[in-house]
What we know:
Helix content is 40%, strand content 16%. It has helices spanning 6-16, 24-28, 56-59, 68-78, 92-104, 118-135, 155-160, 164-167, 182-189, 193-210, 235-247, 300-305, 326-337, 341-361, 398-408, 430-448; strands at 35-39, 42-45, 50-53, 109-115, 142-146, 176-179, 215-220, 224-225, 231-232, 251-255, 279-282, 294-299, 368-374, 377-382, 411-412, 419-422. The chain folds into 2 domains: 33-66 and 341-448, Aspartate Aminotransferase, domain 1 (Alpha-Beta Complex), CATH 3.90.1150; 71-337, Type I PLP-dependent aspartate aminotransferase-like (Major domain) (Aspartate Aminotransferase, domain 2). Bound molecules: 4'-deoxy-4'-aminopyridoxal-5'-phosphate. The site of 4'-deoxy-4'-aminopyridoxal-5'-phosphate has 14 residues, from α6.
Amino acid sequence: MHEPRPSDIVALDHAHLWHPFTQMQEWLAADPLVISAAEGNYLIGADGRRYLDGVSSLWCNVHGHRHPAIDAAIRDQLHRVAHTTLLGLASPPAALVAARLAALAPAGLTRTFYSDAGATAVEIALKLALQYWRLRGEDRPGFVALVEAYHGDTLGAMSIGFSETFHRFYRPLLPVERVPAPYALQRLEARPESEALAIALERLDETLRRKRGTIAAVVLEPLMQGAAGMWPQPVEYLREVRALTQRHETLLVCDEVATGFGRTGRLFACDHTATSPDLLVLGKGLTGGYLPLAATLATEEIFRAFLGPYDGYTAFFHGHTFTGNALACAAALASLQLFTPAMLAAIPAKAAALAAALAAAVRPLPSVFEIRQQGLMVGIELMRDPQRRTGFAPAERIGHRVILAARRRGVVLRPLGDVLVLMPPLSIGDDEIATLVAVAAESIAEVTGA
Ligand code: PMP
């Protein structure tokens, strides 16, 4: 095949593509970086330049790009079949991954329902929760979600994870009660950190009491609200939310699309407190970040509520064309096999090295308001005047300018507003951690004039 030139790709992109989460007017005004290959923790530009993948290709790459074991598993699956439907047929990779997830996930989550994006897996969790209560003879149309939650951009996921900036043109469709997690109380209500946990739990308790019998589920991102700008939670919050949902007899949905698969230092964020939700949502890193596959895991109790004779029509009438795609499941199986005890045990040391480097090189910069980290998940919030808590004006595009400065230094990043996100593949090495932090520090200093 004739290899197109990078300039042709830019022209075609500018003429025909519409990029996600992108102001296209700004996009069209500059030539984009074209990534045409990758290797390990590096992306390779069409001009041959190598860039450290500092955000794991939007938080999903786990073991590095072109990992031999995952590449081989996909190739091997291609020799058999790329895709067959799970509607009416079984498929080896889909069954094997479901069994593996049941073994690895928090206790009791034994059933996997597949889809193809974090958002669709969230939709499935919401629908399962709604139908579960209906099947038990209760009408519970409402959900409780966190202030500044993010669960994806489809309508249901957006209802529970409503973001004013992202979603203001779409009114939430589901009735949702908002409760602040502890960090939201510190940030939005200036509550001291020492009181925030107790107040957050009190608010949830009060909400569940007031809305008794109408709440299908409490939905949250455990340990770190990613898209909010990396808002961390104390582990006790998750443990106590689980206790409250049990006391008030409602379901708990944990969205581990961003936190799952080793990101926070354990396989799942829920593992930090041995918390088992009723529904667990997984995506991104499930295939090692190779292919679009997501999963909604449920307990046997929820699963059994849907059983009955055909003509009772209690089945879960939901599915997507590519539900349980064989290539994606083959990648997932290979990726899950790479999570050996030794591999998981190495993550906390990497997280500690990252924290130490950030404390030395980034923390002292005058525009750094906070560094928030859980495992290999970091948000560095930049402000014009951190003491007075005055931010930069959005039009200054500080976060964006910092990532462009980092790119010139050979690191690809993507900010959340003025929060610089560092989320390297779990396979990142010590030297690469040092490079990542040095580049982040230099780029922040360059753009903020420190
Ligand atoms: N939930 C969380 C916690 C996420 O961070 C994201 C994506 N960043 C999603 C859901 C949506 O996943 P997807 O983009 O695959 O639809």
